[in-house]
Amino acid sequence: MMDIALRSAVGERVRQPSKTLSNVYRLIRAINPYAGNGPAVEPATRVAVLGLYRSGSTAVAGVLHHLGVDMGPPFFHNYYESAWLSQKLRVWWNEPENTTKTPATKRIRILKRWIQKQETRGSKWVGMKHPLLSLCGPDLMAAWGPSVRFIWTCRPLEKSINSLVKLKWWSDSRSEHTQRSLWTATTNFLEDREHLRIDFSQMMAEPRQQVLCLADYLGLKTTEAQIVAATNYIQPTSKE
Prior knowledge:
Elements: H1 2-15, H2 19-31, E1 45-51, H3 57-66, H4 83-92, E2 93-94, E3 99-100, H5 104-119, E4 125-129, H6 137-144, E5 149-154, H7 157-167, H8 172-190, E6 196-199, H9 200-205, H10 207-218, H11 224-233
Parallel strand pairs: 1-4, 1-5, 5-6
Antiparallel strand pairs: 2-3
Helix pairs in contact: 3-11, 5-6, 7-8, 10-11
């Protein structure tokens, strides 16, 4: 009886991984979240489109979508921005004052989880666009890593303010405040950081050239059909 009990205990020890080994597995996954039992998933090129309301960010996001960048569907209306993450951003930031309602640690955790989930869909390029993302520059660096490719959709501040005022979402003064706060956050964050600036007027005047510029900056492997589709998406009266 003792011999049977001994063999049973030894067998149980063999079947169950040791506590030390379990801790090693957890450490590996903490260092490399892509480690697991299946084949490794290589991180995609991560793209963040920053810019004010009415600055051409929807135009750029639509171009990226047509060029093959996974912009996080299902989208919020026709803005080529993740509906799920857009809702989170509006929970985190109190518009139009643009003051934070959520600790940075929580924002970083959710941004990290979102991008990793997007990457499991297999795209080599994954992006997100939303004006409130302009308030999350440091969060993006912490959540997505130092190799994030930032794209700034730039339009003169006063023109962006006037365009938002016309929409009557908020009062004139509150519309101006939200645009100025987004401008300050974006310019301060990108001041000493590599990024691609896409000028709104140039995008409208020379869409194909700007499409090619975006593709080159991100290292996209595009077809002529994709370039044509992305160029045709831009309209002179367009998507701000």
